[in-house]
Each structure stands twice: as C-alpha cells, then as structure tokens.
Design brief:
Length: 160
C-alpha cells in the first residue's frame, strides 16, 4: 500500500489544505492528514478540535483519514507506515523553508520521500495565518477560504 502523510498545523484547515489533500489522494492509496500541535505558531484552536474539523471534511474522500501528529514528522510517518510526506507549496516564498525541511527529513529518514503539491490557483495566497488575521475583524469574509465548520470554529474562538 502506498501511504502518505500530510502534516501541518491546519489552524484552521482551509480549502487550500483540502485541495492538496484531494490531489494527494489521487496519487496514494491512503493519505493521513495529521494535525500538529506546533506550539511555536501559538495555534488559536486546540489540536483535537483541528483534527475534528479535518475529519468532518473527509466525506467523499474514502482514502483519507485524520490523526494527531506527535513527535517529529518523519518518526510519525514511520510509525504510520507512510513512505512519503506531502507538503503543500503555494508560492515561491514557501519554497526555501519547505526545501530546508525536506532536506532535514531526508537526512533523518532517507527512506521517506517528500513531495510538493500545489493547490488550485485560487488558493495560492490563502494561509491559515491570513485567514485568522481577517477573521479577527470580519469572520464572515473568510467564508470562501475555509469550510463552513472551520468558519464556525473561528467565530466561536474569536467570540464573533
């Protein structure tokens, strides 16, 4: 079985994240979308809620499942039996960080390959950070960037 791990903070999950997931599911027998705690990014939503939001959006994607990432991504990939790590790449500005991350992962686990997938053009500029910034002032304006459940979670978290 060709299994891939698509890990990220997903705070919140966006339509761009889900687009990358769908693309990965066309390439692999199974894709595990793993929400990472990532204390460095100071997530707005708890990791368990982020995983639940992802889970609620997996209807119609039979070869996708959700998990909560623990430890290093490459170690988690091994534990889950994934041979590939999927990373979303939106713009050239993402590339330098993603390239460094892929090289570190290759050094730590040479048997696990990293691939980069781009979302549809309409999602190139969408990031969870930008969505949260807009949502602080007007959550309804984030409607086209996130699934409905993520919008509701943002509104609740921000007290809107």
């Amino acid at each position: 079985m060709r299994r891939a791990l698509y890990a990220g903070t997903f705070d919140p999950v966006t339509n761009g994240h889900l687009d990358v997931l769908r693309r990965a599911c066309e390439l692999f027998d199974e894709v595990i979308m793993a929400a990472a705690p990532n204390r460095e990014k100071h997530p707005l939503l708890p990791v368990e809620q982020r995983a639940q939001l992802i889970e609620e959006n997996l209807a119609g994607i039979p070869n996708a499942r959700v998990a909560i990432l623990s430890g290093l991504t490459v170690d988690f990939a091994r534990k889950m039996g994934a041979q590939t790590i999927v990373r979303g790449l939106r713009a050239i500005s993402d590339f330098e960080f993603e390239f460094q991350l892929a090289q570190m992962n290759r050094d730590l686990a040479p048997e696990i390959e990293t691939i980069f997938l781009m979302p549809k053009q309409e999602h190139f500029y969408t990031s969870s950070s930008l969505v949260k910034a807009v949502a602080q002032y007007d959550p309804a304006r984030t409607r086209k960037f996130v699934p409905a459940n993520a919008l509701a979670a943002l509104q609740e978290a921000l007290g809107s």
